């Protein structure tokens, strides 16, 4: 090949490379321009979408505000119309509000009478059991009521006598207790919640005071007289419109009798509501006035009536006790300057009375008491406590001897039964022998 041909070939190659670079550069520029255009279009689309969304949100907010304003305006207009209707109704029928107030008061009187009926029924059950079974049963009932006040669940499944168990269940229902379960799943009775709990606790405390009644038969007769008195009226009064479901425990089935005798003495407490006889408005007002007067008498703001005092509380409830705590003070003695005296402490009067008892008589009394306890058998509280102890031991054995801490262990050893209390009270006698030091008084 010649030099001319070589130069032509090299020049053609260089021109081809130049054209190739130019084409690649042009393609790259077009590609960048296209990407830039697409990016710009995407940015514009996002901006339009955001603007559209903001516009929609603003419109929704405005619509909500307008709807709220319309609702408020409509409610104001409705209230204004109702007030206008009420005023026109009062002008046309002036006794409409008075009738509503009377109906409301009658409903309140009926509810109050039902509660009083349940309380009187529970008192009658306690007094009747004490009159039939003795005052020992009253002490056991008192212990059971103490458990209820402390918030524990009372389980009656351990009582074998069906009549006694049914009577006690009726007593707890009348007292306002509701059904509950223990940690072991046993069903029993316990205080409710809220206002019902406060009312039931007050009723149980009142039943505890009834357990200390000195003469259950007289108290039962007195309660029957009060139950047949004028307080029965509101229970038979006119019934208001149907109310919603009542709060608290529902009234249970009729109580089973403790024996076969069905005399007039069993009809104690306020009778059940009746729809046959309805009281007039004057009678309802008279009963309400009498109840207000009784409340003022109880507070000491009014004097009792002559006829009301005879059918009220018994004399032992009204007369104060004979013991006077100020008898030990000698008002005639001149107050001397204080000084220390070395004298032995203790109640000298109690020691003098204790020395008068013959040891043989004391031994016979203890023997009679022991025989009486053996013949009487364990009490309901003892049976309940033994059953709980057996369940606790069985539960501990089932765990394989492992000690599993529980919150119930915090209450272990806190309760003191009557045997431990007796040992504790008798143990104070040994302190006089151990410590012969004198007690300083001034």
TrEMBL record:
<feature type="region of interest" description="Disordered">
    <location>
        <begin position="341"/>
        <end position="406"/>
    </location>
</feature>
<protein>
    <recommendedName>
        <fullName>DUF3752 domain-containing protein</fullName>
    </recommendedName>
</protein>
<dbReference type="InterPro" id="IPR022226">
    <property type="entry name" value="DUF3752"/>
</dbReference>
<feature type="compositionally biased region" description="Basic residues">
    <location>
        <begin position="18"/>
        <end position="56"/>
    </location>
</feature>
<feature type="compositionally biased region" description="Acidic residues">
    <location>
        <begin position="83"/>
        <end position="94"/>
    </location>
</feature>
<dbReference type="Pfam" id="PF12572">
    <property type="entry name" value="DUF3752"/>
</dbReference>
<feature type="region of interest" description="Disordered">
    <location>
        <begin position="1"/>
        <end position="121"/>
    </location>
</feature>
<feature type="compositionally biased region" description="Low complexity">
    <location>
        <begin position="1"/>
        <end position="17"/>
    </location>
</feature>
<feature type="compositionally biased region" description="Basic residues">
    <location>
        <begin position="66"/>
        <end position="79"/>
    </location>
</feature>
<feature type="region of interest" description="Disordered">
    <location>
        <begin position="219"/>
        <end position="276"/>
    </location>
</feature>
<feature type="compositionally biased region" description="Basic and acidic residues">
    <location>
        <begin position="103"/>
        <end position="118"/>
    </location>
</feature>
<feature type="domain" description="DUF3752">
    <location>
        <begin position="347"/>
        <end position="436"/>
    </location>
</feature>
<feature type="compositionally biased region" description="Low complexity">
    <location>
        <begin position="229"/>
        <end position="238"/>
    </location>
</feature>
């Amino acid at each position: 090949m010649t030099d001319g041909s070589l130069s032509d070939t090299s020049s053609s190659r260089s021109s081809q490379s130049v054209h190739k670079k130019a084409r690649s550069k042009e393609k790259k520029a077009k590609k960048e321009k296209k990407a830039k255009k697409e990016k710009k279009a995407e940015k514009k689309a996002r901006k339009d979408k955001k603007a559209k969304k903001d516009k929609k949100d603003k419109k929704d907010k405005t619509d909500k505000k307008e709807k709220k304003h319309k609702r408020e305006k409509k409610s104001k207009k409705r209230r204004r119309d109702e007030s206008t209707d009420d005023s026109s109704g009062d002008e046309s029928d002036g006794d409409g509000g008075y009738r509503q107030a009377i109906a409301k008061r009658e409903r309140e009187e009926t509810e109050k009478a039902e509660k009083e009926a349940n309380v009187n029924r529970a008192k009658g059950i306690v007094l009747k059991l004490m009159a039939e079974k003795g005052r020992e049963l009253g002490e056991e009932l008192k212990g059971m009521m103490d458990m209820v006040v402390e918030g524990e669940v009372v389980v009656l499944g351990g009582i074998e006598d069906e009549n006694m168990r049914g009577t006690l269940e009726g007593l707890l229902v009348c007292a306002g207790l509701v059904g509950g379960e223990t940690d072991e799943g046993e069903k029993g009775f316990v205080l409710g919640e809220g206002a019902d709990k406060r009312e039931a606790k007050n009723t149980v405390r009142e039943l505890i005071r009834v357990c200390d009644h000195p003469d259950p038969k007289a108290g039962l007769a007195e309660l029957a007289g009060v139950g047949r008195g004028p307080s029965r009226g509101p229970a038979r009064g006119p019934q208001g419109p149907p109310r919603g479901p009542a709060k608290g425990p529902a009234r249970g089935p009729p109580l089973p009798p403790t024996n076969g005798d069905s005399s007039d003495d069993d009809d104690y407490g306020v009778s059940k509501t009746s729809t046959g006889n309805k009281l007039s408005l004057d009678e309802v007002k008279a009963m309400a006035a009498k109840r207000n007067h009784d409340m003022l008498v109880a507070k000491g703001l009014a004097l009792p009536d002559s006829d009301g005092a005879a059918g009220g509380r018994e004399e032992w409830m009204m007369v104060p006790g004979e013991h006077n705590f100020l008898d030990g003070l000698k008002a005639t003695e001149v107050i001397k300057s204080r000084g220390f005296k070395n004298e032995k402490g203790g109640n000298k009067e109690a020691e003098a009375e204790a020395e008068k008892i013959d040891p043989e008589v004391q031994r016979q009394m203890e023997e009679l008491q022991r025989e009486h306890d053996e013949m009487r058998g364990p009490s309901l509280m003892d049976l309940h406590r033994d059953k709980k102890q057996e369940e606790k031991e069985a539960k501990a054995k089932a765990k394989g001897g492992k000690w599993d801490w529980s919150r119930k262990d915090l209450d272990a050893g806190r309760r003191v039964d009557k045997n431990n209390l007796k040992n504790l009270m008798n143990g104070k006698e040994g302190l006089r022998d151990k410590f012969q030091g004198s007690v300083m008084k001034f």
